[in-house]
User: What shape does this take?
Amino acid sequence: MSLNPAAGGKLERTFRPERIRSDYAGQPPVAAAAEQFQREERERHVLRVLWQHGLMPLARKRILEVGCGTGKWLRDLVAWGADPERLVGVELLQATAARARRLCPQSVTIECGNAAELWFEPASFDIVFQASVFTTVLDPDMKHAMAAEMLRVVRPDGAILWYDSFLKSPANPYVLPVFRQEIRDLFPGCSLELRRVTLASPLTRFLAPRAWAACSLLSGIPALCTHYLGVIRKRGVSQ
Assistant: This one.
């Protein structure tokens, strides 16, 4: 997937079978195709949201990702035009943070710490991003503390970018869905624009290696999707 600035930010599909072979060498073909589809689908949706909310281009934006893991999204942000020197990731686990430092460009800042107790100055980031973090936090008080910290460090005219699941995972009792009303409660007084994205994994695993076009078609049906993607802003700020 690529972005064509000359076309006003138009998204262009660049899926090719050889990308699956190079990106996912060693994986079973079904898993490789499903993972590639999910990655391209997420990229397409996130870029569209960033453009629609006036958050592109990213080059001059200071961006924080809470719960950055191994830095996959940080590396995506660099690929989409973000300045590595303006990117910061916070990760709770030391070993994971160390791996993120190895995988990300050297100028990306990766810090080990608790997202419920951020140490940054208030209003110091243009974008604060979380992806699949809140569903892994089982303590409601910690969720509220994390959300409050995200609101504290984002600039008044900035935005919180949200991507997380609203469905239960029967195979994993340590992942809890975050519903729309809970997101509203976590960010009181804010405006939310959320959309359903990410085709359910069983459908993706079945269809991606067999019928890519059908997979793409079904991914546009909200009832078949499992995640909320959207932007949270403080009210009273012109967009």
The longest strand covers residues 154-165. The first helix runs from residue 17 to 23. The helical segments are 17-23, 29-52, 72-79, 94-103, 140-153, 180-186, 201-207, 212-218.
